[in-house]
Write a structure and sequence with these properties.
The complex is a heterodimer of chains A (200) and B (581). By secondary structure, chain A is of the alpha+beta class. Chain A has a domain of 111 residues: Sandwich (Immunoglobulin-like). Chain A is built from three helices and eight strands. In chain A, the strands form two sheets. Chain A has a four-stranded mixed beta sheet, with no helix packed on it. Chain A has a four-stranded antiparallel beta sheet with strand order 3-2-5-6, with no helix packed on it. The longest helix of chain A has 43 residues. Chain B is mainly alpha-helical and 581 residues long. Among the domains of chain B are: 178 residues, Serine Threonine Protein Phosphatase 5, Tetratricopeptide repeat, CATH 1.25.40.10; 68 residues. Chain B is built from 25 helices and no strands. In chain B, helix 5 runs antiparallel to helix 6 and helix 15 packs antiparallel against helix 16. Chain B is elongated. Chain B starts with a helix and ends with a helix. Classes of the chains: A alpha+beta (200), B mainly alpha (581). At the A-B interface, helix 1, helix 2 and helix 3 of A face helix 3, helix 4, helix 6, helix 17 and helix 22 of B.
Amino acid sequence: MALSQDKKLLWTYLSVFTLIILSLTVEQALAANNSINFAQDAKQKGAQAALQTVKKLSKEIQQLKSEVVDLNKDLRLMEEELLFPTSTQATVFVSLDIGQFFTLESIKLKLDDKQVASHLYSEKQRQALARGGIQRLHMTNLNQGKHTMSAFFTGLGPNGRPYKRASEISFTKGKGSQYIELSVVDDLDKQEPTFVIKQW
Amino acid sequence: MTPSNLMNNMAFKHMQTACAYCVVVCALLFSASYVSAAKVKDLKYGGILFDYYQQDYFQALVGYEYAKATNELEHNAEEARLLQGGMTLSYGLPDEAQRIFKELLDEKVPQESRNKAWFYLAKLYYQKGEVFNAAKNLSRIQGSVPKDVAEEFNYLATLINIKNQHFDAAVSALKFVGKNSVYEPYLVFNLAISQLNSGQEEACRENLLKVIEFGKQRPEEEFLVLADRAKQALAHLSVQNNNLIEAWGFLQNVRTTGLYSNRALLSYGWTAIKLKQFNQAIPALKALNKRSISIPEVQEAKVLLGHLYEQKGATRTALKQYLLAEKSFKEGVDSISHARKVIAGQRIPEEFVVNLEAMMDETDWYGSEPSIDYTKLTPFLVELMSSNPFHSVIKELRDLYAIRNNLKYWSRQALEHQLIIKHRQQGLTSKIIQGFIAKTERKQEMFENEISDLRLHTMTLEVEEQDRFASIIESTDKSFEFLDDKLTKVKAIKEPFRQSEKNVRWAKKLHNRIRKKLVNTNKLIKKLEHVMRIVVNAELDNHEERMRYYWAQARLGKARLYDRTLNNIENEQMKKTGARP
């Protein structure tokens, strides 16, 4: 019985001691978490070393990027030669001058009464056009001789009203490649958009 | 002082003067009238711009090379060359960009183009961390700065001034920043932090307060986030000065959602505890307690909340908090081991990198339910994302995946090219064409005889009946005319079209190049994915260690409370039995 009492006493002292130590350390431990190194240094150093190898790989990646740009250029040239030889090639472009009176939403293109292309514009593309970008809408092969092309523009006109317009051109395809530009231009005098098809 | 004089001075003096020069240029910039931007005169240049403005630098660069090869950049050649340099830099090819700008500056180009080239070179050096060279190149700009780079120029000039601790020059330059410029709040914030680092605490405070004002004037998300950062920085300063009440005031105004809310809520909780305002600390910690266990601040808050209840003498609530925290930490450690499996997966790095932008946009990182595997990874990588080296790994990998997709596209196209070439080589010969013409002529004669029989036959009919057939006969005649026209054209062919041997060899060579580049790309992707896995696993180790540390704290808290309760019971028993401790 006496032994059991001693054991209990010892156990109580130990518990109290543990409690005091824990109470003292917990707040400090919680507050000091930022300075604790939570992962093994070796692993973190390994990760840093791995990141360093990326710097070495950077030269190789740069070289590959340049080579792939060059390869794409060559492939584009070769493919055009194969599929759209200069003698029959015809390309249609779209441009927008200012775009204050017209928000372009879509274009439909007809060539010799057949619909050959249509495009729905994203905001990003509209912005790119408004800043001077020119979109290649369609590329095809055409015989030499007379052709007609019509373009149908839909979007929002002045005051945000739905706006639909069509424009047509008759042209003669010559020996060389033919470039045609569908151009939406703001008419500042009339305060409305104009739709023009030009031959280059 | 001219740029050449500047070169002769000592390095520091040079830098000082160069930066001061930047400020002078800023003044010029906003007072001068601009020359309108050059119109697009070459269709192909417009095509390059179309891709460039959509930030598709790869396609824009291909477009430039193509237009150059076909001599279709007659009028906009210089602008296109400059643009090529800028795009090359943006596409992650700094060495090539540097070469382009230097070449351009060696040639006789108009002042505006020269100025742009100097600006881009300065930007390039700044990105490389060579601030001295950046300032040197910026100071070479003469006259007015081109309009399309004006705002960026001013931003760069101010950044250089800040970096070199020329705070007076930076403050003067800030006066020239256009109103509503997106750069202004960032510049003021950067200036404030640099001032703090150089011991100018008062000036730093003033500028941080300005950033908070920007947030009020322009309540867009990015400026509100910046204002939150400024409030936290101010609170940090107040804590350093032992002004806890002031710190608490700043922290109360940080938004409770958004990127920086976790740190703010925890700081708020700690400040309240230091002020002995325990009841004020609890709601902030409770708010954190509900968030994802992957956030370090949440882990700390869980244990701190238990400790706070303990301090208040709410033993049962404290015990419950520790038990719930233990459960959360177990779940957290489990989710880390799941994240490890995810990153080891074959396709995960690519999906993760490609979808990164979308994920960053749609998740707020707080307890969102993952829909696909890689989203289980993202909560643990938030901090890692903001580190530059890891970010460049992600960027390079994204470009390499895009290159691989491009090469795979061309591999599919190559099969079509070969099919076309094969068909053309084995297709029509002069003999086949002659046979075709003879066969068609025979058919034509036969049809003509048949139609003339039918025409004769209709003549035997009544007049009314004849009219019914007239339109059919007319359209048939037109079809015959059309056929005749086509046949005449075919007869005119002296020799069928043959793919030139040169083109066939060219295609073959290019197809081989596609294969080689694809092998090279896959090799580089494999290397970078390996790096990514090492770095991500190290970050997960970091998370696991931290999580296990707080888990242990929660266990200790629980043990402490059990001990105390047991002691109390024993003391009560001893009191009852009259035994002495």
